Amino acid sequence: MKVNFEDLVKDSITLSKMIPKDKYKFVYGIPSGGILTAHIIAQEIGASQLTAEEFNNAIIEGEILLVDDLIDSGNTIKKCQDKCKQDLDTAVLYSKPHSPTVTYLLKQIPHEWVYLPHEKEGTGAEEHIVRILEHIGENPLREGLIDTPKRVLKMYEEIFRGYKKEKEPKVTVFENGKDGIVYDEMILDTGNFYSNCEHHMLPFFGQYWFAYIPNPQGNILGLSKVARVIDYYAAKLQIQERLTKEIVDALWTALTVEKANKDYIQVIEPIGMALVMKGEHLCKTMRGCKKKGEMTTSVMRGAFKDKPATRSEFLSFINS
What we know:
The chain is α/β, with parallel strands linked by helices. Helix content is about 35%, strand content about 25%.
């Protein structure tokens, strides 16, 4: 999302109309993005705008309003409040869906990078990667690293495509019996998966085994759809337990059919569904205790959960 200068000014004036004119004596804009918005708000509500030195060092009597252009995690605002040891009211132009609550907010924007007028488009996120390279002791200007921030961002767009709703695969299903045969036995699919741990942003990867028993009155999955669903939910920061459940939830929903009868709606679900995922987590293998980080998770529903013989048949495929 790109915000131009004209939009920023217009939005700042709109935000100022949400703020009572007689409530605050001082306005402080968090550098650097909040300074322009704070200047506009101070003029509109008749308050004085504090400089950074005044905010950090002076003892200010009366109410202070903190102003910023964008709140993401809320850490910047918290640092300002900690400096003056006050729980200050806040006015912010834009926030993300996960952002902490502020006193006055103009609009919430989607999960995407926001380019503001004082930033050059395409460099905001890259600068953070440059700082990470400096933090670990590297020289981001050496020949091999000059284009690394761009490459990392491009890679992130690919491996974290699971955050983009438009990338969610359409799960194609077919009516059971449409091809001339009604199938109500186990169907098994297996393959590899790759994801990233949300605790350390390191990969975990391995093999999955998925099985389901279609309902004779229900539907059958398209051949490639299991792999596509697994790839989509794995393409974001995850824990393996949640990943396993999200996949089964999505596929179970796709196979569930509602048929309207004369007096009621009949819900037709699969006879059973199971997913086992075995992954190696590099956050354990590469760091910390530095031991092989293997984990197995499973979700069983219907016959796979309720009938030991069905579950044993499925597990025999994994152990063979």
